[in-house]
Structure formats: C-alpha cells, structure tokens
Amino acid sequence: MKIGLLGCGAMGSLYGGYLSKVHEVYVCDVWKEHIEAIRANGIRLDEPEGETAVFTPKYATTDPSEIGPVDLLIVFVKYMLLEDALKNAKTMIGKDTIVLSLQNGIGNYDEIAKVVPEEQICCGTTAHGCTFLEPGHVRHTGRGITNVGTLKGPYANAEKVADALRQAGFEAAAHENVMQLIWHKLFANIAINAITALLDQTNATVAENPYEHTLAENMVREAVAVANATGCHFDVEAELKNAFDVAIATGTNRSSMLQDVTRQRETEIKIINGAVVKTGKEAGIPTPYNEVICQLIQAKQSFYLKK
Length: 307
Hints:
Layout: E1 2-6, H1 10-19, E2 24-28, H2 32-41, E3 43-46, E4 52-55, E5 59-61, E6 70-75, H3 79-88, E7 93-101, H4 108-113, E8 121-126, E9 129-134, E10 137-142, E11 146-149, H5 155-167, E12 172-174, H6 178-199, H7 204-208, H8 210-229, H9 236-249, H10 256-262, H11 273-283, H12 288-305
Parallel strand pairs: 1-2, 1-6, 2-5, 3-10, 6-7, 7-8, 11-12
Antiparallel strand pairs: 3-4, 8-11, 9-10
Helix pairs in contact: 6-8, 6-9, 6-10, 6-12, 8-9, 8-11, 11-12
C-alpha cells in the first residue's frame, strides 16, 4: 500500500517508521531539518525496551506535490493548521484515498471535511506514546492499540486501514462506534491537559493534589454528561477512574498542552475542553467548569500569541 504521512513529528515518525517495514511510505513535513535528517539517516526510534531501531521511508520531503496520490494519508497536523495543510497537500489525495486522523480531541474531523469528501475520512485513537528528541530521532514511550472507524464513509475503509496497520506490527481494530472511543480518550485529556498547563505541573498531580483532583472530576463529569447526550453510553464513575489512572500511569509526563504553553505555541484547548463547551451548548447542557478553564488557557496564551 502507498501510504503518506502528513505531519511527521513524534507520532508521525513512529507510524511512518513502523509502516515503512511493509508498505511504501512517503513522509511530508514543513520542518526542513527534520526531513533532511530522515533523508540522511532514516527515522531513528528509541524503543521502550532500550534498543534503537532505524526505518527508511520510500521518500521524505517538505513538498507534497512531489509525492502524488496515495492509498492512505495519515494526518498528524494540529487542528488549527489542518485545513491549510490539507489544501496544500491536495495532490496527495485522489478520489480513492482514505484520509485517517488519529489526533486527540473532537474537531479534527470537521477540519478535514472542509477539504476531503466525508466518505473518504476515517478517524480514531492511538494509545501509543512518543516524544520528539531531535531531527530524525524520536523516543517510543509506550505501546497500545490503534482504533479506527468511520462516521459517514464505508466501514470497509476502517477495516482496510486496520489491516494495513496490523501488517506493520501495530495492534489495531476497526470499530462501528468510533466516537465512543474518541470521547473515552478525550476524558483523560480533559482531566489532565489544561490543569497541568495552567499550573506547570506533571500529570500525576492531577490525581494527587486534592484541589486539582476536584477540578478535574468536575470537568470530566460535565464531559460525560455531554457525550451521553450525543448518543454515547458512559458510566461516569468508570470514566473518572480511568482518567485518574491515566494521570498516575503517565505521572512524570508533561502534558502536550503544558509543552505548548512552555514553548509559547497555540494550544488545542478548543478541541479538548472547548469541544465539551461547544457540544454542551448544542445539547443544552451547562459546562461551567470547562468553560472557565477554556477562558483561562486562552487568556494565558493570548499574552504570548498577542491575540
């Protein structure tokens, strides 16, 4: 299968590397130094067990027009850049190309659908962890399942994607109700990301500090109520337990939102806690805790973004 990676940071490098073992993989990223390192030395991946693997994609470039249409395009671009990135990569998207989003949050699908017909879109979740070390070099911090599904496209597309991932050694599954899985993962992000970004703390503090714990619990309770109003079926106590278990299991990690704030980048608050607020308003469910945390994060980033 001819597979393209649009956005080849930590997760893009992980998926691009593994997939290149059995597929024809083309990676595209705007960071010239990273692409040059991949061309020179391949994708170097430090595995959780300690060894370093090296993978060689078919081609690495900053120019998507050099690649042409692919069978599967996996997108790892932040949602605020997603529409423009896909418009720039239109030459990679043919009438039969499947476009897969595995990014966190709720809202990426809508950005992709501005450019790609919905019947060609797959979405899902990944439980893998990965950290960027230097151009061409990433650390694989944890393994997990990749879940894939469709909202309006044929379910066969999700099965095709899951099969391609399994061929490369990923644990992968296709699901009929992919939004249930996306919300489930989102609850942990809702509990952890914004609080740690505001307080400059690692993930474990959300479970261990009583004030953080209470705030996180209130935000997750709102999110579960909103998700259930959209047709999902979640037990709030089970989701709270999972969210705090994730905080402990990733206890020494600095959340992606904290990393964004530290590097003075725009955060993805709009598709994490902001997705709860937006969907809550549509469903007539108040979400005051998530609304306030969104305002605080947006205020914090407004100082360095100057907007």
